[in-house]
């Protein structure tokens, strides 16, 4: 049996090893034989092998090519594993779904915490071909993702994710469940993209620009933060008080701001 891989700091690697949390994640995903499951960052395969056993086939996206041979060897007797050696931010999920012959993918993974937000936004850009996502993330990030308006942690990530997905935090995972233990608590979250007909029709780039500007200076009013993007009259035409702060607005309010003439 090969020795455990040495986690690499520059890849943000923390390998999940505690069996009970692996089992809880696999139970939450509940993969079926007809599913096209895609794991982001399989690492040593703690999640890969049980997901593969349940689904029979699995696609894994791994950047660290030193981990791939051992992963493929362990998977050989379990099911059909395809490993894509790539940075997930370069992966076209729509093209992958077409190649696999499925309408939608099911994503899972223990995401590198230092680039979790870019990965989430990359996945959102492919929401049409994603059935659901089960991700392990820093607990603080999961709390921000699910935060409600009026909360101190409600912000850009909350709005952009909630406009595209149903966000359901599932359970926490302590540092000791990983090798090496991270310095923060972790949590597992389920993201389910909204059906196309339930999503807003505003220009996504416009919505993103307004949300980003609105939360750039949280303590200032919309009239100040959106200066140069929307004037006070335009904000009022969207049915929103220009003196309001971004953290008090519902996600749909930002869509109305993006749609105002």
From TrEMBL:
The keyword DNA-binding does not apply. Signal peptide: none annotated. Pfam families: RrnaAD. Its EC number is 2.1.1.182. The keyword RNA-binding applies. One of its GO terms (cellular component) is cytosol. It catalyses: adenosine(1518)/adenosine(1519) in 16S rRNA + 4 S-adenosyl-L-methionine = N(6)-dimethyladenosine(1518)/N(6)-dimethyladenosine(1519) in 16S rRNA + 4 S-adenosyl-L-homocysteine + 4 H(+). S-adenosyl-L-methionine binds at residues 14, 16, 41, 62, 87, 110. It comes from the Bacteria. It is an enzyme of class 2 (transferase). GO terms for molecular function: 16S rRNA (adenine(1518)-N(6)/adenine(1519)-N(6))-dimethyltransferase activity; RNA binding. HAMAP family: 16SrRNA_methyltr_A (MF_00607). Belongs to the class I-like SAM-binding methyltransferase superfamily. rRNA adenine N(6)-methyltransferase family. RsmA subfamily. Specifically dimethylates two adjacent adenosines (A1518 and A1519) in the loop of a conserved hairpin near the 3'-end of 16S rRNA in the 30S particle. May play a critical role in biogenesis of 30S subunits. This is Ribosomal RNA small subunit methyltransferase A. The lineage of its organism: Bacteria, Pseudomonadati, Pseudomonadota, Gammaproteobacteria, Lysobacterales. The gene is rsmA.
């Amino acid at each position: 049996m090969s020795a455990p891989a040495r986690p690499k700091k520059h890849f943000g690697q923390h390998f999940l090893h505690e069996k009970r949390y692996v089992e809880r994640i696999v139970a939450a995903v509940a993969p079926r034989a007809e599913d096209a499951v895609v794991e982001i960052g399989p690492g040593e395969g703690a999640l890969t092998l049980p997901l593969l056993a349940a689904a029979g086939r699995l696609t894994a996206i791994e950047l660290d090519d030193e981990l791939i041979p051992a992963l493929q060897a362990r998977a050989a007797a379990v099911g059909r594993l395809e490993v894509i050696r790539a940075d997930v931010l370069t992966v076209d999920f729509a093209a992958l779904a077409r190649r696999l012959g499925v309408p939608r993918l099911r994503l899972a993974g223990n995401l590198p915490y230092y680039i979790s937000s870019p990965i989430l936004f990359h996945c959102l850009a492919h929401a049409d071909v994603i059935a659901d996502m089960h991700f392990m993330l820093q607990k603080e990030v999961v709390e921000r993702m699910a935060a409600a308006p009026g909360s101190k942690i409600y912000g850009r990530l909350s709005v952009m994710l909630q406009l595209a997905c149903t966000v359901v935090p599932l359970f926490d995972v302590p540092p000791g469940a990983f090798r090496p233990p991270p310095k923060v608590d972790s949590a597992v979250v389920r993201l389910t993209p909204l059906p196309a007909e339930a999503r807003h029709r505003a220009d996504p780039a416009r919505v993103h620009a307004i949300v980003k500007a609105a939360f750039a200076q949280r303590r200032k009013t919309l009239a100040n933060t959106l200066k140069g993007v929307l004037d006070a009259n335009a904000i009022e035409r969207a049915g929103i008080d220009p003196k309001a702060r971004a953290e008090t607005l519902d996600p749909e309010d930002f869509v109305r701001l993006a749609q105002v003439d």
